[in-house]
Amino acid sequence: MLKQSLELKQQQKLSPLQIQTIKLIELPIQELEQRIRKELEENPVLDEDLPSEKEEDEAPREVSLSEYKEDDAIPSYRLRSDNYNTKDERPQYSTFSVKESFTQSLQEQLGYRNLTEHQYAVASFIIGSLDDDGYLRRSIDSIVDDLSFRANVETDEEEVLAMLKIIQEFDPAGVGARDLRECLLLQIRYFRKTPEVVNATKILTHHFNEFTNKHFQKIMTRMGLSEAELKAAMSKILKLNPSPGGQIDDSYADQAQQIVPDFLLEYRDGDFNLSMPRFSVPELRVNRKYADILIEAANSSEREKKEAAAFVKKKLDSAKWFVEAIKQRHNTLFSTMQAIVDYQREYFIDGDESNLKPMVLKDIAEKTGFDISTISRVVNSKYIETHFGIYSLKYFFSEGLENQDGEEVSTRELKKALQECVDNENKHKPLTDDELVDRMTEKGYKVARRTIAKYRDQLGIPKARLRKEL
């Protein structure tokens, strides 16, 4: 038996403007520029305003997106949008470099090899399968299968291994390794064959487990080495890079990608001045031709002109939302960054990390009135330039714990203190986690043993046994 019933549900539906704003907030300044370019290409109503190229007799009609109303059948407006003040000079902003992508570097080196089109396709696929640290952690079988099903390239294990061997000759040394042992061996093969290098190679080849577990006495006994000979061999191994994908050769630095800070913070005479770069962000205006269509259609009864006006109105809606979303993005980002500066005022004076207060997304959400999700979007992939360096906004956020005086200190400060304890320890007898608790207590930090273990892992600090040196 079927039953019919009415049920009222309250649902929050985002407007086109809200959706547009959310998407723009996530973008750093460079991607925002690209997004504006894309909008200019796709929306014929919008033009990039280039004031220096205008002639006196071609002054734009008085049209404003800000005065355009959604419910106007034929809107009355001025042409220029007021999203940018042309009287303001566009300042130049500092940038910092992030090196060319790891994959791009390898693909370029691949291009110099004399390979057939088929071999190139196989090798290129292998490069695309590497992890960020430069390792190939996928099985050869799975690469053969994926080449067949995903790339429509028929190959076999022998050819894949042959192409992998070529990639393993690329810079940086160690790339394409399938495990740490292979990575280190790929690098040390380029060293001059001195006695210590020969011993280091034998350690990596035949005694790798003992090496990783720092069972030095076993290595000396099994290889018949003195302590001095083992130290010399270990010094060679410690010069190798366990993560070759983490950096690329300096010869590629000229192709570095430039990142433009989204914020600029100046500190003068005890006062902060926060600003947002308008770097290469074009001013938007309504295309003159489409303004004429609306004006002509206003007093016309012709169907074609009315349809044209309806099309222009639809595009105007989109343009209005887009320009308004850019404004709201600016206001949201600025308010959020200002709240962060106010919250971390003592830190921003001189960049002293010990003055960085514990701060989570919720703290800034409460100060600004924005949702935590909005703060998260603002913080993601954004940078600020200060008088003591350029920082990601994520850097300023950390949880906190109380010290022995009952004051809350940031986890960043605790980690810094922990790192100092490890850096200053006797490497012949490294501090255990219990001993690190005692050292942190001496420094005035009340930290449990499990917290020490967690922070140690986050800092990439091995256990005491693995930090032991000869």
Tags for this entry?
two-stranded antiparallel ribbon; 20 helices; 4-stranded mixed β-sheet; alpha+beta; 470 residues; 8% strand; Arc Repressor Mutant, subunit A
Write a brief caption for the model.
With 470 residues, the protein is of the alpha+beta class. The chain is 47% helix and 8% strand.
Q: Strand tally, please?
A: 10
**Can you tell me the residue ranges where pLDDT is under 50 for at least 5 consecutive residues?**
50-100, 248-257
Round the mean pLDDT to the nearest integer and report it. 77
From the alpha-carbon coordinates, what is the Rg to the nearest angstrom?
31 Å
Strand content: 5-15%
Put simply, the count of helices is: 20
Please, how many domains?
Answer: 3
Describe the overall structure:
The protein folds into 3 domains: 223 residues, no CATH class; 145 residues, no CATH class; 68 residues, Homeodomain-like (Arc Repressor Mutant, subunit A), CATH 1.10.10.60. The chain has 20 helices and 10 strands. Helix 1 packs across helix 13 and helix 4 crosses helix 6. It is flat. 25% of the residues are buried. About 13% of the residues have low confidence.
Helices and strands in order:
Layout: H1 16-25, H2 29-42, E1 46-49, E2 96-98, H3 102-110, H4 117-128, H5 140-149, H6 157-167, H7 180-188, H8 195-206, H9 208-212, H10 216-223, H11 227-238, E3 257-259, E4 263-268, E5 271-275, E6 283-286, H12 288-298, H13 303-343, H14 345-350, H15 361-368, H16 372-379, E7 383-386, E8 389-392, E9 400-402, E10 408-410, H17 411-423, H18 433-442, H19 449-458, H20 464-467
Parallel strand pairs: 4-7
Antiparallel strand pairs: 1-6, 2-3, 4-5, 7-8, 9-10
Helix pairs in contact: 1-13, 3-4, 4-6, 7-8, 8-11, 12-13, 13-15, 15-16, 18-19
